[in-house]
Amino acid sequence: MVRVSTTPRRVATALGLVTALLVAGCSGAGQRPSAGPASTPVPPPPPPSSAPPEDPATLAATLVGELADEDLVGQVLMPYAYGDHATKVSAGSAAGNRALAGVDTPAEMIEKYRLGGLILVGFSADDPTQGNQETTNVDNPKQVRNLTTGLREAAGRLPAGAAPLLIGTDQEYGVVTRITDGVTMLPSALGAGAAGDPDLTEAAWRAAGTELTAMGINVDFAPVADVLVTRSAVIGSRSFGSDPQRAADQVGGAVRGLQSAGVAATLKHFPGHGHSAVDSHTDLPRLPQSRGELAAEAWPPFTAGIEAGALAVMSAHLDVRSIDPGVAATFSYKLLTEVLRGELGFQGVVITDGMNMAPARRFPPGEAAVRALKAGNDLILMPPHVGQAYEGLLTALRDGTLPRGRLVEAATRVLTMKFTLGDPPTPALSTLGAPAHREAAGELAAGAVTVLRGRCGTTGVRGPVTVTSSAGRAHTRAALTRALTEAGVKVVPEGGTVVHLVGYGDGAQDLRTGAAVTVAMDTPYVLAKAKSATLLATYSSSRASMTALADVLAGKTRPAGRSPVKVPGLPTTTCAD
After folding, report:
1. Which of 141, 2, 120 is nearest to 429 (CA)?
2. Which one of 149, 150, 356, 492 is most buried, by most CB atoms within 10 A?
3. How far apart are CA 240 and CA 225, in angstroms?
4. Of residues 104, 243, 324, 353, which has the active-site annotation?
């Protein structure tokens, strides 16, 4: 197992090596004035003799000095691609890649644009992010590993091939989980927040990171560091909760777990999407909070993640009225450079949220990429047209609109992260679903189960049970049925004690009159309308969560969770400390 930690002093050293190339300047709303045309490329000075020869930051600075403009531009792009194989795709996938990048396959996209990374995309039924998932190229672990192997081979032939390709995905667990089949499914972040034990969170996310590494993925766009202060459907159970410090503790645990397994953690969505219920996939949310409120309520989990060593932070399409009104944080120098770097001290890679989302599409792909880079982003994620983003950056570099120093700085950070991750041996696919991984997920899920109504010691059901649910949850009903049967509880089609399940997107109309037990498998707010004598929350519908629920219903375990968000009229738990 490879432990990855951020090295802020080393990153700062590497950036210091290219200080002579940096020219102050940005233009446009929310950005500083341009300094005019860029100078002829100048390689960075040699590293100090005292620097370790294999230091990631030193390696990055040296490699940057050897790369052409085209390579530097490519290193700051991380698009998606069509197709579930690097070099062999269907006619439909080839057509999608031609429209996106003028090539047929993902490997050709990497080679043509000298890409620094690629994101693997996909969606599930209860996915609030599926609007910007134009395709899916994940199916099962073996297919993903074959795909990532081919992508790495293509990247290895590039001038920057000494640094491993970044291959990322949104594996948050819960409603946003790209790879679901054949992997150990953790409970949602909100479930981890209910368990309230950072050590359990760290262990579970270490297992998750190991499985991602086995599939060839080295960047996870997780954990979500947003504090859930609004009833946001787009963030919801993706957050660890509404208490900034408790969420901060959980974020730190998730970061340590992921990066101890060799996977870069990405804190998202800075400066805090949990402070708005508006969906940034379709609109530009406005955050009316004061700077002081954001510092106290939104930023502690980001600070905790940075202190835990997070290698990346994702910027969000959010309009922070008190800091840079009218400018999405994605394009805000004040937020990304002055606040995130200057005040919070982050020295790693800043990655945009999807540039195919509506707020970023207000500009053509090339202009959007330039604006994002000048604001302080280092990696442009999911541009809606790869060729236009690439050409826009290259043209801006050559005409001086994009200061060379800013591009060099961004590429140096990206390459430093790559060399920090390294290229360790890939664990065997048999690692996936290992008993130790299932145990870690199970302990976290068990700690999450919460009683919001009913006596803590009498949650066990008597007699046969009938499991019901809101529409479209047959798979989850079956999972709970199996778990109850294994726990020794008889399950009948009808007539027993009714245990009713509700999940993502459900409201009062999805509750069942007469149910003895109602269980919330996502945010627990709907329980405020439920009339059942016993109200439980698992915050997740994963296999581990259904097993933990079954053990509580069977009277085998005592539910110890505490709701990480306030539900009107209900306590955080009825169980005494």
Report:
1. 141
2. 356
3. 7
4. 353
Residues 114, 119, 124: CA angle, nearest 5 degrees: 160
Q: Mutual orientation of helices 404-421 and 365-375 as an angle, nearest 10°?
A: 80
Which of the four pLDDT bands, split at 50, 70 and 90, describes residue 556? very high
53 preceded by a cis bond (ω within 30 of 0)? no
The active-site residue out of 269, 273, 275, 281 is 281
By DSSP bridging, strand 450-453 and strand 534-537 are: antiparallel
Answer whether residue 124 shows pLDDT above 80: no
**273 given a catalytic annotation:** no
> Considering only CA atoms, which of 30, 66, 28 is closest in space to residue 46?
66
Distance CA 291, CA 299 (A): 10
DSSP 298-331: TSHHHHHHHHTT-SEEEE---EETTTSTTSBGGG
Interval 241-250: pLDDT, tens: 999 999 999 9
Query: Is 353 annotated as catalytic?
Result: yes
Token pair belonging to 367: 């202009």
CA distance 122 to 410: 28
Question: 491: which strand partners?
Answer: 465
Burial of 399 (0-12, 13-18, 19+ CB in 10 A): exposed
pLDDT digits (tens, 9 = 90+) for 89-113: 999 999 999 999 999 999 999 999 9
